[in-house]
Every structure is written in structure tokens, then in C-alpha cells.
């Protein structure tokens, strides 16, 4: 425990730890996603996995830093029991931005405003924005067949899918998104992407893995499938003739005028882990949300068309959401363009990642809330519910404070 009562999940000692206490080993490729390494690994991922830089280029915006680590910001004091709830949900960073200003921020001991943090599947929402940028520039259309860009996929699950299907995850794939089962396709995918040690018979890289996937049933229903985002990134490379990481830098990241470069993990062939591998600071992630709330405009130029940003905020078709965990938390919820829509009365929309990552938008009060966390488990339903309640309480408290508290 630290002096202010926050438990540090991991504190990596050096091998020459003078205390003589048991030395916690540095996480390796097969342990970094597990306790007690989660917090350290999520804030140092480029020291564990091969990674590429997503350069910010151009001039940066400067972020004023007002909050001390561990202090509950004044603007959030009406949220019941906030300090305990931040600790309970393994929060590493909490940041609130409204009108271009940081109105509250909180960091766990050992984490700070300049630290990159893994955002897991919030990376997918970034990929969706790159795809939207290609639509804006006339490089593809939503009804274009995926195989017109990636003919290697003509015999598998994506044979009949369109770019729009990828964006809304309405492709049926034999793919078990089970984060903890070594026999799941998700873990085989991760091994091909270099997130775990490869086993005999595993494909050598992500494109090799994507080529093995077969279809599982009727199309047109939502199926959350991380592979589908990597297919989208592969198609982006083919449509532009450039690496996904460079497209992400040029079309999205650099236009946000972020304070820092971001990073993304890459496989043996250099293919970026578009579905979950991006790390960035909380403040820079909030700029993504600000851009969507601003109708696709960013300080360094337009990222997506206004209509694209409106579609994200409007949400997808809730009728496509069959038997999904998301709708047990948000009954009217949906998914579109690689973003989650709560369907709640405030119209909250979010990028979401396992282990507690949120890029939460409140259109009514033009507020962005970023919460970066290191839950020990990837996606326990109780953790999802606890965190969802916290995000809604934060939103209400902030909205009340700025007079935008319509229900
Ligand atoms: N390939 C490794 C990275 C996988 C990242 C997966 C992730 O962050 N998934 C988010 C799942 C959200 C599920 C929401 C729900 O159904 O309630």
C-alpha cells in the first residue's frame, strides 16, 4: 500500500533488489497479461512486445497538468465514494475533457500524464476512423467487397463480407473470443500476432492466421470478433498501398495534434495489431473523442466526414445484437463503425477494451471521459457492470456541474 492508501499492483524490482525480498520476475510474452504484471505491462508494453511508433508529426498541443496523483479532483467530488471505486476498478488514469480543457484528472501512483497505456480494443475504434477517412477520400465504399482488396480471403469467412460488414462486425466467423482459453481462436490469433509464444502449427503472422478463418453461420448479426478488425486493417493496407501504422499516423493521429507519439505492437512481419495493440496517453486518447464530438474535425485537419462522426454517435442497429454480453449491461445497446453505443438516455458512446479501458463520449455535455485500468481479469461481467455504473455516475456528476444534466 502507498501512503495515500492506493495499492500498487506491481512494482518491478531490479534483479539486485537491495531489500533481499523475493524478486518479482519481469513479465515475459506469456505472462504480461496476468497478475501481478498487468499494471506495469500495460504502461510499458513496448518493453515486452515488438512495437512500432505512431508518430504525432507536426506541432503538439500542450496539456496543462493540474492534478496530483491520487487526489480526487474537485469536479468529481459529487460522485459517491469515488476514491474507493477508482481503486476497486484498478484505475490507472481517469481524465475528463470538456471544451478542449482538462477539467479533472487522476492517476494511480506509478502512472502519470506522460505515460502510454495499452488501450486494448479501443484500438479498434481508431481503426474504424482510419476506415472512415478512406471513405471520405473516395478510396473505398462501405459496400465494396473485402476480397476486392484482399483476394487471399476469397475461400474463408470473409468471402462475402463488405467493408461495412467489417466495420459493424456483422460477419459470422468460427472464432471464439475467449481471452482465457488457450484453445480459443483468440489465443491462436494472439500467438500469431506475437502476443504469446507460438505453438507448433500456428500461422507465422497475423495475415497467415486470418487466411485460416472459416465462416460459422448466417451473416448480418453482430459477432464481436477481434480478427474482423485485423481484416479491416489488412484491407486498409491494400486500398492505400501503405502500412496500416502509417495510415493511422497520417490520417488520424497526427491530425489530433497530440502531445505524444503512440505505439502499436507488431507481429513478425511488421503487421500492426490493429484490434488491440495501441498504447497512448490518456490525454491523447481523449483527443480522439473530442474529434468525434466535433463532427470529425481535429486541430490538424478533418479526420472523417461529419456524417461518419454522426453515425458513430447515432449507434448501430440494436436488432443485430443477438445474445451479447453488452446488451445485458445496456439493453438498447449496439455497435457500429468499431464503436459501442449504450443506447442509454444520454446517448453515451464508447470505445471499449478489456481490463477496463474506456473512451467514453457524452454528446449532451460535449464531455470525454477516459478511464485506463489494469483489471486482473480481462472481462469479468461483474467488473463490466461495476465500471459501467461508475462511468454513468461520472457522466451525471459532470453534466450536473456544467448544467447539461438532461436525463
Ligand atoms: N487480440 C488481443 C486484443 C484483444 C482485445 C479485446 C478487447 O479489448 N475486447 C473488448 C471486449 C468488449 C466486450 C464488451 C461486451 O461484450 O460486453
TrEMBL record:
Gene Ontology molecular function: any one: hydrolase activity
Domain Beta-lactamase-related, chain residue ranges per copy: 83-386
Protein name listed in UniProt: Serine hydrolase
Keywords for the protein's UniProt record, in alphabetical order: Hydrolase
Region (Disordered): 1-34
Lineage, highest ranks first: Bacteria, Bacillati, Actinomycetota, Actinomycetes, Micrococcales
InterPro entries, sorted: Beta-lactam-related, Beta-lactam/transpept-like, Diverse_Enzym_Activities
Amino acid at each position: 500500500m502507498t501512503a495515500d492508501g492506493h495499492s500498487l499492483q506491481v512494482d518491478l524490482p531490479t534483479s539486485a533488489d537491495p531489500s533481499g525480498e523475493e524478486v518479482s520476475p519481469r513479465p515475459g510474452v506469456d505472462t504480461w497479461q496476468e497478475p501481478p504484471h498487468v499494471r506495469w505491462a500495460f504502461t510499458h508494453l513496448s518493453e515486452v512486445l515488438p512495437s512500432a511508433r505512431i508518430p504525432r508529426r507536426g506541432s503538439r498541443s500542450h496539456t496543462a497538468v493540474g492534478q496530483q496523483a491520487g487526489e480526487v479532483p474537485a469536479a468529481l467530488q459529487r460522485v459517491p465514494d469515488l476514491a474507493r471505486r477508482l481503486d476497486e476498478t484498478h484505475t490507472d488514469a481517469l481524465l475528463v475533457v470538456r471544451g478542449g480543457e482538462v477539467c479533472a484528472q487522476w492517476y494511480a501512483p506509478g502512472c502519470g500524464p506522460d505515460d502510454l497505456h495499452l488501450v486494448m480494443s479501443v484500438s479498434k475504434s481508431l481503426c474504424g476512423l482510419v476506415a472512415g477517412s478512406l471513405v471520405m477520400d473516395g478510396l473505398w465504399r462501405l459496400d465494396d467487397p473485402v476480397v476486392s482488396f484482399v483476394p487471399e480471403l476469397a475461400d474463408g469467412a470473409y468471402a462475402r463480407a463488405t467493408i461495412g460488414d467489417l466495420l459493424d462486425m456483422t460477419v459470422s466467423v468460427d472464432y471464439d473470443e475467449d481471452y482465457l482459453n488457450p484453445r480459443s481462436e483468440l489465443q491462436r490469433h494472439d500467438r500469431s500476432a506475437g502476443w504469446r509464444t507460438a505453438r507448433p502449427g500456428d500461422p507465422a503472422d497475423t495475415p497467415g492466421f486470418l487466411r485460416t478463418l472459416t465462416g460459422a453461420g448466417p451473416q448480418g448479426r453482430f459477432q464481436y470478433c477481434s480478427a474482423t478488425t485485423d481484416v479491416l486493417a489488412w484491407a486498409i493496407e491494400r486500398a492505400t498501398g501503405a502500412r496500416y501504422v502509417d495510415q493511422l499516423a497520417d490520417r488520424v493521429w497526427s491530425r489530433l495534434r497530440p502531445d505524444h507519439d503512440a505505439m502499436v505492437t507488431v507481429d513478425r512481419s511488421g503487421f500492426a495489431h490493429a484490434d488491440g495493440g495501441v498504447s497512448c496517453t490518456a490525454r491523447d486518447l481523449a483527443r480522439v473523442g473530442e474529434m468525434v464530438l466535433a463532427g470529425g474535425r481535429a486541430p490538424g485537419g478533418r479526420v472523417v466526414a461529419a456524417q461518419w462522426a454522426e453515425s458513430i454517435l447515432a449507434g448501430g442497429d440494436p436488432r443485430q445484437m443477438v445474445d451479447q454480453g453488452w446488451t445485458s449491461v445496456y439493453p438498447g445497446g449496439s455497435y457500429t463503425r468499431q464503436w459501442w453505443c449504450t443506447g442509454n438516455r444520454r446517448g453515451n458512446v464508447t470505445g471499449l477494451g478489456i481490463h477496463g479501458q474506456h473512451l467514453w463520449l457524452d454528446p449532451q455535455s460535449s464531455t470525454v471521459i477516459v478511464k485506463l485500468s489494469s483489471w486482473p481479469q480481462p472481462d469479468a461481467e461483474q467488473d463490466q457492470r461495476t465500471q459501467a455504473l461508475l462511468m454513468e455516475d461520472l457522466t451525471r456528476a459532470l453534466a450536473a456541474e456544467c448544467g447539461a444534466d438532461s436525463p
